[in-house]
Design brief:
Helix content is about 20%, strand content about 30%. Strand 10, helix 2 and strand 11 form a beta-alpha-beta unit. Helix 1 crosses helix 2 and helix 3 runs parallel beside helix 6. It is an alpha+beta fold. The strands form seven sheets. It has an eight-stranded mixed sheet with strand order 13-14-15-16-19-21-20-22, covered by helices on one side. The chain folds into three domains: about 80 residues, Immunoglobulins (Immunoglobulin-like, Sandwich); about 325 residues, Purple Acid Phosphatase, chain A, domain 2, CATH 3.60.21.70; about 70 residues, Immunoglobulin-like (Sandwich).
Length: about 550
């Protein structure tokens, strides 16, 4: 309860202070962290002189950068180099108006260089921010960001549909795309001064080869790529990162669209499922969609050469379009089979010269989790030993957009709600949490708690680092399910004190009880969720009532 109260307070502070924060004159977005360097993208809305000072002890800054003179609303990318690997750094920004003598100073910020093998660390994932349309709500997004900041991750990854560039793909202007990308800096600047930010491209970024082919360079894809790179420093191949080595014309250079790196015991692989998908359609289906042979070859080589204990792959969605997880993973270029029946294997005919489908690459090379967004819902599925994890919306104040629209495309463990994914990586295990975000008005009754963990699972043995999936799944079982009249809860410890809350699909409380036998005979047919709380654990069980 102490943790939840702390996160609720954080959320309130971010929510009520959001406009004051946005009104500040600068933002810092960290990116491209390596073992010995990091990039700070610093932007002011006034003409300013600034420099960074930094060191390895709080309050003691032994190094400084050069002094920069800004151009209004134009980021300066300041690269800190010759850093010590596996080290936490402290820094602050000193700045003054041009023509004045005294420097102002920001609070102290932090970052961490690449973790050594054997380290324990946390990272977070968000997706489908959608602040550019009615799906995403700014106050809701503030709370999700605050919750991530409270987790103190080494970095965060967005799975795309951030900027919303493609809603008027044939008439949008470069000036409009500039604003769409710039609009996110005040939000991300609230936490990304201390949390490096990675962009994984979504379909609504509009950076695909179909748009690229339309009257270049004056088109959505070219402009969107340039403005993304202008405001957000994403990785490109060097001694630390691998990725796309192709430099594009029209002053794009390296598009910084797919890349990989290692951190601690884990390999991270971020895919771009749009740039080479199909140059004749913005939404290709079936075998018409492709990752593109260059990116496929890079992915294959990256997975095969890696000796990392854990391997994580990220993309906006399997095959770029459609809905669902493992049902799509069996098909076409991803899985090798034709059609929804997945009975005819046709990969060698459709992709001559390619070694194997993408999912088979995952199996053969020990990929632990594939993370995707796009469907605006949390879903956890398993196929051939590979976890397929759908990441919910970061800013859905209805908490139900994705669940109502897309939950039926998944086969198991599907939840609505807004929030982020928190991943703890240690030598003994990986622990994945769905951390829910709630607006303050929606927590007044105490039924919903901002920062509560809606679902947890683990890979490996987390007994030394916290509760494991085994503990969570075994402390209570329910049967029968589906249930007609009496639902029985069987606890691993008969003396365990517990509290049970039943909630419908819209979040309304149906009942609360401490009984081990629940009479549901008068409750209408439908899908419900049981929140079971004990002294040390909580778990959510999906329940189907069918009379």
């Amino acid at each position: 309860m102490k943790i939840n109260l702390q996160k609720a307070i954080i959320a309130l502070v971010f929510s009520f202070c959001g406009y004051a924060i946005v009104a500040q004159t600068h933002s810092i977005i960290l990116g491209r962290p390596t073992d010995t360097s990091i990039t700070a993208s610093v932007m002011f809305d006034q003409k300013i002189q600034f420099y960074l000072e930094y060191g390895t002890q709080t309050g003691i800054y032994t190094q400084t950068t050069s002094t920069y003179t800004t151009v209004i609303n134009t980021p300066d990318e300041v690269e800190l180099t010759a850093l010590i690997p596996n080290t936490k750094y402290y820094y602050r920004l000193r700045y003054r108006m041009v023509g004045t003598s005294s420097f102002l100073v920001t609070p102290e910020y932090t970052f961490h260089t690449q973790r050594a093998v054997g380290s324990t660390f946390t990272f977070t994932i968000e997706s489908d921010e959608h602040l550019y349309d009615k799906k995403g709500v700014k106050n809701m997004y503030d709370i999700t960001l605050a919750n991530q900041a409270a987790d103190k991750p080494d970095f965060m990854i967005s799975l795309g549909d951030i900027f919303g560039d493609d809603h008027e793909p044939f008439t949008v202007t470069s000036e409009e795309l500039d604003l769409l990308h710039r609009d996110y800096r005040p939000f991300l600047g609230k936490i990304c001064h201390s949390i490096p930010f990675y962009v994984c491209l979504g379909n609504h970024e509009g950076e695909n080869d179909y748009y690229y082919s339309l009257s270049p360079p004056d088109n959505l894809c070219v402009w969107a790529t340039k403005w993304r790179k202008f405001y957000y420093p994403n990785p490109y191949p060097n001694s630390f990162y691998t990725g796309n080595t192709i430099n594009e014309p029209y002053n794009i250079g390296n598009p910084e669209n797919y890349y990989a790196w290692t951190w601690g015991n884990a390999l991270f692989v971020v895919l771009d499922v749009y740039r080479d998908q199909c140059d004749t359609s913005a939404k290709p289906g079936g075998w018409s969609w492709t990752l593109g042979f260059p990116q496929y070859t890079w992915l294959k080589n990256t997975l095969e050469k890696s000796t990392a204990q854990y391997k994580f792959v990220f993309a906006h969605h399997i095959r770029g379009q459609g809905r669902g997880g493992i049902t799509n993973a069996k098909l076409y270029e991803w899985g090798g089979y034709d059609g929804q029946g997945a009975t005819i294997y046709n990969f060698s005919n459709k992709r001559p010269g390619w070694a194997k489908p993408i999912h088979q690459l995952f199996i053969d090379n020990g990929v632990n989790i594939f993370f995707q967004g796009h469907d605006h819902v949390f879903a956890h599925e398993l196929l051939d030993g590979v976890t397929y994890q759908a990441v919910p919306m970061a800013a859905d104040s209805t908490y139900e957009i994705g669940k109502l629209a897309n939950a039926d495309a998944y086969t198991s463990d599907t939840f609505g709600g807004a929030g982020h994914i928190r991943v703890l990586v240690s030598p003994s295990c990986v622990k994945v949490d769905f951390v829910r975000a709630y607006l303050p008005a929606d927590t007044i009754t105490g039924v919903r708690l901002n920062g509560e963990v809606a679902f947890t699972y683990t890979i490996g043995n987390c007994s030394t680092t916290g509760a494991t999936e085994t503990i969570q799944k075994e402390f209570v079982t329910i049967f029968p399910n589906p249930v007609k009249d009496n639902l029985i809860l069987n606890f691993s410890n008969e003396n365990m004190s517990h509290h049970i809350k039943m909630v419908d699909a819209c979040g309304r409380i149906i009942m609360q009880t401490k009984s081990n036998v629940i009479d549901v005979s008068m409750i209408p047919n439908g899908v419900y969720f049981l929140y079971v709380y004990s002294e040390k654990n909580q778990i959510v069980k999906k329940l189907c009532i069918s009379h």
